[in-house]
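Ticket 4471: requesting a sanity check on a complex prediction with 4'-deoxy-4'-aminopyridoxal-5'-phosphate. Repro inputs:
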Amino acid sequence: KSAFADVKLVIPAEIFHLTKLYQEDKHEKKVNLGVGAYRTEDNKPLVLPIVKKCEFEVVNDLTLNHEYLPMSGNPDFIKVATELLLGSDCKALQEKRVAAVQTVSGTSACRLAADFLAKRLKRRAVFFPDPTWENHGEIFKHAGFKQFKNYAYWHKKRRQIDMSKLLVDLASATEGSVVLLHGSAHNPTGMDLTKKQWKQVAEVIKCNNLFPIIDTAYQGFATGDPDRDAWAIRYFANQGIELMAAQSFSKNMGLYNERVGSLVTIIKDPKLVPALISEQMLYVRPNYSNPPAFGSRVVAKVLGDKKNKEEWLKTLREMTDRVKTMRKELLQKLQKLNTPGRWDHIVKQRGMFSFTGLNEQQVARLIKEKHIYLTRTGRINICGLNTKNIDYVAESICQIVK
Ligand code: PMP
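Returned structure tokens:
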């Protein structure tokens, strides 16, 4: 008998399961609004032209080899990635109070933050927005956190942020708790705080001495401008708040499977930076030992050259413009069809996702009857819409909610 005779078939992640169901579906009108990846008007993945160009340059660079990177990653990448996140005029950067390490994209940046904080800030609670990316809880659980709390974020009925409850929840958090925030394009709701609201959150964080982790998986994907999307983290840094940020190049450079990201820690005392990085390496070494090089070299080339960067920014704007157009069109079509309920939140939300407000039963029917795939929570990836399928999607939603 096998030592694993009792293994059970599980679904580790709804999102990968949905993609599989979509791929197996033979229906001609099937639509995938599940997976969080950009799609072109032709429903194809996009390799950004400037990314492709830089990939060729990396491949053709005969001075490069496949030696291990340092455990903390590729220094050329770290420099440009950190500047993209914080802005090159960032005071914390100038004062050398930033400890940045390359990670296996945003997921492993979150995990490294969680590993480090679980050990360093023993017994503390971690607060997640309600709702949040479904992997956050698992990551922190595996890192050893024991206390999990939610702070209010989404008001289901009003389909907007429940700001007053959010502030109450953070104000009543035990002093020193860890609080996870989404830098921009909140997943799954697509609803971000305004500058005024971010300032209120920063105030509570300071008063209550909370430790923020800002998960920044969509820098540039909310507004099309990475500087605007990094406003909150830069504001927090300028307020002298110690924080961590998880950075990812999956979405904004379309480098999903290259796994490029970083964990950035801003601390008050620059003298602590080397020790802090060295302690973080205690979690990297027994985990993946050192990060992969290729994607980091590509990002370093894209961001390290003014012209390349401009071209990247142009494509980023084109991608986000397409998403914004699809939002507007979906709203117009739903309204034209007299779809019951309010739908204007679709155009107030930003980034890839829209939290539609569709309930679990409606989602199940959309999948079964209409071959439109989306998560149980009613989240849709707007990038999965295009001029060819948007009428079908709007009509299907209308029929299901009627
Ligand atoms: N955080 C959030 C909020 C996300 O939505 C994602 C991607 N779905 C990630 C982190 C991590 O993505 P990756 O590991 O590809 O960088």
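Notes from triage: The radius of gyration is 21 Å. Leaving this open until the requester confirms.
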